[in-house]
RNA sequence: GGGCGAUUAGCUCAGUUGGUUAGAGCGCCACCUUUACACGGUGGAUGUCAGGAGUUCGAGUCUCUUAUCGCCCACCA
């Protein structure tokens, strides 16, 4: 037997406001939560008592977007739910201030650019502040030192972070604000450098001098994960190469400007048109360079002329040919995207040299124009160029096609070359619970399609530096194979200002001295370690913290960065910890504008989130976000926010009503405080028990949904019952709860009154808890009325079915459903007659099925009062309806509703209208 | 070209393992100021379930196919 003391609810009731509203609740409760440390993480010391969340650090240089509100609300609902379930929730916040977006924003905002040759100026003042939005020519930007630039980055991101924090707080995210990190901060840098050094030690990180994809605008290498293919207009040029005797052989190319870099012509080994030429040589037009005709299976017979010119490098197939066929490296594109200034040594022909001089230093675009002119003049251009659209690789943040240049870069293993690691990462993907599950496919597609290890070095300025130096030999040349490494305890370091052990600053860049690795790490090389950053991985003295928080429970993120953030995090945890970094990943969808277009800055249809929060309230905006499932795109819908606002207001009013009964003075004020105990044993009336039975069911369903990360369904069942509770249950028990005498003047029994009041109290207490993850402000407000001095609803216990099931005492929830349907039928009589709901019903006959009649009998007095039936109220058989019920054997409340039919009614005199 | 998701009322969306007459809210229409709520309440009308074919006694649901929308990957001669 359960002791009722265990399941009864003690309430401390405060005075109630005469009128309630949702406006202003945000500021009121946010201040209280801050002061009380409601969301502060307390490490219980055991992993099972913690729920840890790897919060996505927003790119602070990006703009606030209503999409942020959407996905962060989903995570907050889970955080609040877990907290109410007794978990110590580690819910930190990070800021992604590392990387190119910040660099670009700083350049525009302050009108500056980095010049690595400049010295640090401690008194530097930027020429502008807030030129954001205006386009500024690079030549007008003031050159400054790298260190000055980094300082400006830090200054600006600090401002951006304040904006984000203000939004998150207003939205009511239950973040522990004492646990924040920056991807460029000292801690994150230490983790990134430490992990890199350990990767290096294990041979998982390595350098390679090889062709890489190169962005000419930002002048940095980029990784496979950062590629984006876009349609790019071009022209096919049909160009003649010639044999010794002048016989032409035609190739087609979209990049004639690379003619000087051609090292071979290549056709498929099975291509009968060209088989007889394999091994022979031809001369390139204009430059007259002798190149072989070779066979390689990557050549496609049906593309262009079927034979291609291989240049180093026009595309990734060129790289493959160059490697497989051991072709000479003939590079003519500089890292800024222009043709080299020096005459290539493989061009020996005088006319060839003259042509090359025409294109030296030109952009690929102008060089192409010049080459086409020259080709046309000598007659080696067959016909006119024909326009084509082709898909070309771009850096996702760049606007010029990527070039391929050969350079020394750092790589990290990611399964792109190592089949065993690839299989392990696929396996990890199967272990991870994706919500929704179909997102796993995107992960697997990506891992299967990897074609190389992860290029992690970037030739940029604002980021985490590689923590190493290279010794210089007597000729001043670096020994890349034997880098000088710092010890872990001095991390983070910046090799451009810090000095390797055993050297002095004077030896920097001197023969026999050392030089710093100039590159920084890819921003994802830091972001991929957020699980390790927030759980204090490898921090001396934090071993216990790490043990009780890692592997984490949840990674929430956008579906667009599965290949980057999610995958790279899994990779890093596999290399470092040999496990998944988290057990669950939730993927949110996009926000579409009302015309079903994806919201994006470039489309100019972005809604700034502060506006709807101000207009409808944070709870209302959260409600809109919560009503969308994970992984599905949602439409920006202010109508949905209005509904959320209405729900919050309804909760305030309904709770106020339930708590005010029996405590009001003659003016309906409730000024006193009171104690109450809602004991399930006091719920004795059938209708009240039915309401509790339904509550037990709803609690169970909502809990199951939230356990499965289906917050929208949880909200739906809670909300549906809440409205039924308000519209039907409260209306039905109102008179009894007040102790109002019936038409015959009979006063309800004391126990019946107590039963109603107890069920109302238990019900609204439950709704406050059930809705707390969704509407944190309104629920906290009503909680404060009934549990004054007991702390926040957000640290209260999530409801369990037991107290409600106990109160239900085996009464079916159908009793409430049937009573509600009957009440609706009585209302329908009045609505059709277009009279007030207060109008009494003299006489009414309802046709109902047997089981409904049985059920209604238990709540008939309440129905009679709520419907104001003052005379005959008969429930009769309706044979055809009964047959219907029996034929399908269905006794659900839905079917029951349709078996209540008004067969006859007579209305009394409507009440006199009040002025 | 491959893959994933979507397509249900004017709008936003539910619809579990196939089951009788497909639901909710908004909006719309009508009515009601009723001692929790006019930031309200009550009642009502509303559908070629994108199209086609198939499996089945029975299909919004399963299979195939077409179309449209969104996204991911692959196509650079």
Automatic annotation (TrEMBL):
InterPro entries in the record: aa-tRNA-synth_I_CS, aa-tRNA-synth_Ia, Anticodon_Ia_Val, M/V/L/I-tRNA-synth_anticd-bd, Rossmann-like_a/b/a_fold, tRNAsynth_Ia_anticodon-bd, Val/Leu/Ile-tRNA-synth_edit, Valine-tRNA_ligase_type_2
A Pfam family the protein falls into: tRNA-synt_1
Domain named Methionyl/Valyl/Leucyl/Isoleucyl-tRNA synthetase anticodon-binding: residues: 688-842
GO CC, alphabetical: cytosol
Domain Aminoacyl-tRNA synthetase class Ia: 29-114, 137-633
Keywords: Aminoacyl-tRNA synthetase, ATP-binding, Cytoplasm, Ligase, Nucleotide-binding, Protein biosynthesis
Annotated region (Disordered), positions in chain: 886-915
Compartments, as annotated in UniProt: Cytoplasm
A GO MF term: ATP binding
Catalytic activity, as annotated: tRNA(Val) + L-valine + ATP = L-valyl-tRNA(Val) + AMP + diphosphate
Motif 'HIGH' region, chain ranges: 58-68
Motif extent ('KMSKS' region): 598-602
Amino-acid positions noted as binding ATP in the UniProt annotation, renumbered to this chain: 601
Major localization listed first in the record, in broad terms: cytoplasm
GO term, biological process aspect, one: valyl-tRNA aminoacylation
PROSITE patterns assigned: AA_TRNA_LIGASE_I
SUPFAM superfamilies: Anticodon-binding domain of a subclass of class I aminoacyl-tRNA synthetases, Nucleotidylyl transferase, ValRS/IleRS/LeuRS editing domain
EC numbers, comma separated: 6.1.1.9
Compositionally biased region (Acidic residues): 888-897
Job of this protein: Catalyzes the attachment of valine to tRNA(Val). As ValRS can inadvertently accommodate and process structurally similar amino acids such as threonine, to avoid such errors, it has a 'posttransfer' editing activity that hydrolyzes mischarged Thr-tRNA(Val) in a tRNA-dependent manner.
Family designation: Belongs to the class-I aminoacyl-tRNA synthetase family. ValS type 2 subfamily.
PANTHER family reported for this sequence: VALINE--TRNA LIGASE, CHLOROPLASTIC_MITOCHONDRIAL 2 (PTHR11946:SF93), VALYL-TRNA SYNTHETASES (PTHR11946)
Assembly, per entry: Monomer.
Domain note: ValRS has two distinct active sites: one for aminoacylation and one for editing. The misactivated threonine is translocated from the active site to the editing site.
Name of the protein described by the UniProt record: Valine--tRNA ligase
Organism listed in the record: Bifidobacterium cuniculi
């Amino acid at each position: 037997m359960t002791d009722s003391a265990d399941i009864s609810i003690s309430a401390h009731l405060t005075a109630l406001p005469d009128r309630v509203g949702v406006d202003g609740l945000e500021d009121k409760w946010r201040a209280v939560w801050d002061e009380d440390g409601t969301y502060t993480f307390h490490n219980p010391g055991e992993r099972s008592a913690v729920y840890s969340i790897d919060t996505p650090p927003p790119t602070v240089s990006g703009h606030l977007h209503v999409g942020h509100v959407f996905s962060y609300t989903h995570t907050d609902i889970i955080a609040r739910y877990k907290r109410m379930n007794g978990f110590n929730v580690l819910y930190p916040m990070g800021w992604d201030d590392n990387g190119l977006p910040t660099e670009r924003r700083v350049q525009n905002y302050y009108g500056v650019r980095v010049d690595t040759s400049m010295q640090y100026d401690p008194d530097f003042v930027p020429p502008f502040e807030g030129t954001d939005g205006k386009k500024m020519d690079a030549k007008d930007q003031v050159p400054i030192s790298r260190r000055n630039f980094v300082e400006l980055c830090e200054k600006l991101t600090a401002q951006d972070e304040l904006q984000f924090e203000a939004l998150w707080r207003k939205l009511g995210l239950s973040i522990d604000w004492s646990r924040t990190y920056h991807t460029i901060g000292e801690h994150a840098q230490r983790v990134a450098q430490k992990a890199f050094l350990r990767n290096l030690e294990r041979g998982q990180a390595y350098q390679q001098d090889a062709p890489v994809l190169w962005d000419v605008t930002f002048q940095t290498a980029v990784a496979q994960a950062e590629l984006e293919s876009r349609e790019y207009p071009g022209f096919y040029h049909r160009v003649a190469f010639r044999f010794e005797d002048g016989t032409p052989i035609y190739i087609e190319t979209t990049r004639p400007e690379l003619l000087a870099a051609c090292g071979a012509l290549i056709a498929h080994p099975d291509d009968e048109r060209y088989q007889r030429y394999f091994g022979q040589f031809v001369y390139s037009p204009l430059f007259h360079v002798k190149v072989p005709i070779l066979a390689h299976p990557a050549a496609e017979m049906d593309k262009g002329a079927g034979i291609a010119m291989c240049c180093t490098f026009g595309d990734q197939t060129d790289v493959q040919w160059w490697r497989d066929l051991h072709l000479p490296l003939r590079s003519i594109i500089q890292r800024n995207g222009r043709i080299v200034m020096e005459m290539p040594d493989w061009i020996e022909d005088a006319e060839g040299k003259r042509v090359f001089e025409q294109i030296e230093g030109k952009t690929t675009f102008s060089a192409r124009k010049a080459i086409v002119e020259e080709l046309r003049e000598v007659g080696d251009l067959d016909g006119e160029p024909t326009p084509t659209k082709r898909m070309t690789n771009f850096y996702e943040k760049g606007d010029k096609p990527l070039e391929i240049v050969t350079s020394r870069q750092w790589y990290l293993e990611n399964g792109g070359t190592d089949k065993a690691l690839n299989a392990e990462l696929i396996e990890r993907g199967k272990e991870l619970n994706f919500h929704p599950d179909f997102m796993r496919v995107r992960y697997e597609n990506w891992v299967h399609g990897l074609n190389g290890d992860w290029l992690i070095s970037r030739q940029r300025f604002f980021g985490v530096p590689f923590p190493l130096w290279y010794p210089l030999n007597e000729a001043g040349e670096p020994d890349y194979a034997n880098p000088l490494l710092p010890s872990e305890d001095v991390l983070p370091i910046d090799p451009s200002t810090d000095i390797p052990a055993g050297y002095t600053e004077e030896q920097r860049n001197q023969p026999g001295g050392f030089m710093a690795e100039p590159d920084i790490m890819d921003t994802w090389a830091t972001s991929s370690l957020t699980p390790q950053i927030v759980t204090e991985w490898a921090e001396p003295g934090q071993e216990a913290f790490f043990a009780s928080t890692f592997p984490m429970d949840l990674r929430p993120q956008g579906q667009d960065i599965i290949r980057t953030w999610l995958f790279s995090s899994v990779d890093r945890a596999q290399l470092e910890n040999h496990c998944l970094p988290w057990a669950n990943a939730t993927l949110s969808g996009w926000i579409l504008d009302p015309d079903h277009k994806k919201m994006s800055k470039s489309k100019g249809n972005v809604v700034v989130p502060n506006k709807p929060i101000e207009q409808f309230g944070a709870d209302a905006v959260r409600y809109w976000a919560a009503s969308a499932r994970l992984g599905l795109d949602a439409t920006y819908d202010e109508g949905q926010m209005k509904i959320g606002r209405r729900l919050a207001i309804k909760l305030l009013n309904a709770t106020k009503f339930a708590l005010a009964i029996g405590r009001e003075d003659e003016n309906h004020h409730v000024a006193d405080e009171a104690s109450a105990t809602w004991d399930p044993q006091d719920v004795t009336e059938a209708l009240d028990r039915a309401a509790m039975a339904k509550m037990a069911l709803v609690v169970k369903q909502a809990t199951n949904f939230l356990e499965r990360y289906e917050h929208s369904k949880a909200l739906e069942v809670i909300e549906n019952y809440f409205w039924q509770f308000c519209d039907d249950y409260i209306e039905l028990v109102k008179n009894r709860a007040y102790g109002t005498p019936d038409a015959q003047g009979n006063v309800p029994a004391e126990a019946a009154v107590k039963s109603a009041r107890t069920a109302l109290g238990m019900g609204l207490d439950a709704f406050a808890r059930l809705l707390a993850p969704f509407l944190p402000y309104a629920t906290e407000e009503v909680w404060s009325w009934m549990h004054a001095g007991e702390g926040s609803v957000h640290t209260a216990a999530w409801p369990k079915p037991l107290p409600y099931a106990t109160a239900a005492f085996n009464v079916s929830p159908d009793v409430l459903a049937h009573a509600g349907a009957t009440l609706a039928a009585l209302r329908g009589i009045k609505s059709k007659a277009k009279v007030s709901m207060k109008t009494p019903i003299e006489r009414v006959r309802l046709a109902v099925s047997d089981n409904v009649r049985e059920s209604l009998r238990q709540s008939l007095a309440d129905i009679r009062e709520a419907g104001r039936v003052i005379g005959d109220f008969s429930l009769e058989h309706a044979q055809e309806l009964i047959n219907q019920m029996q034929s399908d054997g269905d006794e659900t409340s839905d079917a029951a509703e349709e078996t209540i039919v008004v067969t006859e009614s007579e209305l009394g005199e409507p009440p006199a209208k009040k002025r």
